[in-house]
Amino acid sequence: MRYSYFPGCTLHTQAKNFGASALASARELGIELVELPDWQCCGAVYPLASDNHMALVSPYRTLSSAHSRGEDLVTMCSGCYNVLKRTNVRVAKDPDVQGKLSAFVETDYRGDARVLHLLEVLKTDLGFEALKERVTRPLTGLSVAPYYGCLLLRPPEDMQFDDAESPSIFEDFIRALGATPVDYPYRTECCGAYVSISEDERSGEPARAILRSAGRYGAHCIVTSCPLCQYNLDVKGQMPVLYFTQLLALALGCTEVLQDFSLHHVDPRPVLAGFANGV
Amino acid sequence: MQLTADKVRSEFVFRVEEISGEKIHGCYQCGKCSAGCPMAEVMEYLPHRVLRLLQLGQESVALSSRTIWLCAACHTCASRCPRSVDLSRIMEALRTVLLREGKDFVNPTRLPPELLEAMPQQALVGGLRKYS
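^ inputs. structure came back:
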């Protein structure tokens, strides 16, 4: 299993822990992720103005590059996944936009690449049953609140990731690691996203509601696949918020990438120590 | 509020429809968007009311509302709308109208250094694209 890998801007900086735990886990599972040599930031948000074509140039280049290598494109940041996948759908469906981008970038890419989230690779290409067999340190007894947020699921007609109102891929993943998924009502609610840079105190309200809900339903920690969700939730200091790949690395015994939690506001070690060795 | 035919069928509403690709008058005001909006609690005008303001041609009220900047473009409204009106795109069109006039909501040079240090790049790139 070999893929072109798109890290995105945050996985080499504020979310190094996400990138490192993902790559170590993938190696352990025999999933080869080869970083695209010429990747550029995807722009972080998909442009919603119909006439904003400039913001599609960078994701178009990345998609075209992966396609020319004959590989599926894998990313694990929800933001990158959303932008790349939506751009791909737009290029495939809208010949006018495809023509403009193609002329501007000077490559005739038509939206044929496959954009995959790492969770999809684990579910579809590896299989959660196979993943379960590879787990050496099952996280028995750990109650994990899966947090989907918006970018993986919406808009559903473009993303086609899971059922937008009642998704289950995170829950199945958590079960494969031996942990227990927490069913709580706020798992697909938005955390407030980029509104946090407006410094408006009210922008923190959605994140606080999600944390209250996860806590009320007995979660020990939250898992996410979005560095911005991780930040918005973690910075409130209520409970540990981990990337799904950190739990994966833990369950696979790749503990060398789990020694540094300095990027977290809430240190997850006291919670994890009760359920797993090596942290 | 005084309504006139000119106001209701204004150049402005046409522009918002053009940028968003959505039909303002497609909305029948059921309020489903506001019911699911994670930011509704802290908005001065609920999302469906912003749309109503547009239907009534109230350009300046809609554009001066903080609601359009508190929208996080999460698409919950759009994915649940029984009339398939994508309010996320309409909110973006309203922000776009202001941004294209040079009216930034956030000035990147005025962000406090400690916030720049702490925030993930994704928030800065995304936020500054939405707000400046």
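The two ends of chain B are 31 Å apart (CA to CA). The interface with chain A takes residues 18-21, 38-39, 41-42, 66, 69-70, 72-76, 78-79, 86, 88-89, 92-93, 96, 105-106, 111-112, 115, 118-131 of chain B (CB under 8 Å).
thumbs up if we can close this ticket
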